[in-house]
Design goal:
The protein has a single domain, classed as Hypothetical protein af1432. It is globular and about 55 Å long. The chain has eight helices and no strands. The chain is about 65% helix and about 0% strand. Helix 2 (about 30-45) runs antiparallel to helix 3, helix 6 runs parallel beside helix 8 (about 130-160) and helix 7 (about 110-125) packs antiparallel against helix 8 (about 130-160).
Length: about 160
């Protein structure tokens, strides 16, 4: 999905991550953001509304910008991002002193941010993670996917009851 808002997010992320590399020191960091976006589109294009997908794509491009200290929330506000995008980026930004487990549990409250995090983890698994990172990602995926499954089951029940 290519819209003015997704292009703004892509351009912003490209500028903010310019000169930064993944942990291997070789792959430009923006490739990770692109990978998250591609996974998000593949996973949710038939599950989410076009508007939610557009918001998700923007969040996917920007998901590490605040946490990695590339910019601030006022910077994203000034750039003109919609409140839903700002909320999603906020959900995906670990708070100071927050454990990884608490961070993952917090994502159950935002469907789009949760979907972006699932795709973020899936992309991170392709980046030669350590065994400890694999365990942490696996536990996080179990939590996030369980909640996604519950939400999908509730939606299915509502649709069946309404039919």
């Amino acid at each position: 999905m290519d819209t003015p808002k997704t292009r703004l997010a892509r351009t912003s992320a490209t500028c903010l991550h310019s000169g930064h590399f993944r942990s291997n020191g070789i792959m430009p960091y923006i490739n990770h953001c692109r990978g998250v976006v591609e996974r998000l589109v593949n996973r949710y294009q038939n599950k989410w509304s076009p508007r939610d997908l557009e918001i998700g794509i923007q969040i996917a491009w920007l998901h590490d910008t605040i946490e990695d200290k590339r910019c601030t929330m006022p910077d994203l506000i000034s750039a003109g991002f919609d409140p839903e995008v700002l909320v999603g980026v906020t959900f995906l930004t670990r708070r100071e002193g927050e454990t990884y487990g608490a961070f993952i549990l917090r994502l159950e409250h935002d469907e789009i941010a949760r979907g972006v995090k699932i795709c973020d983890i899936l992309d991170n698994l392709g980046d030669a993670p350590t065994n400890n990172a694999i365990r942490r990602y696996a536990q996080a995926l179990l939590v996030l996917l369980a909640h996604e499954g519950q939400q999908n089951a509730e939606r299915d029940r509502e649709e069946t009851a309404g039919a």
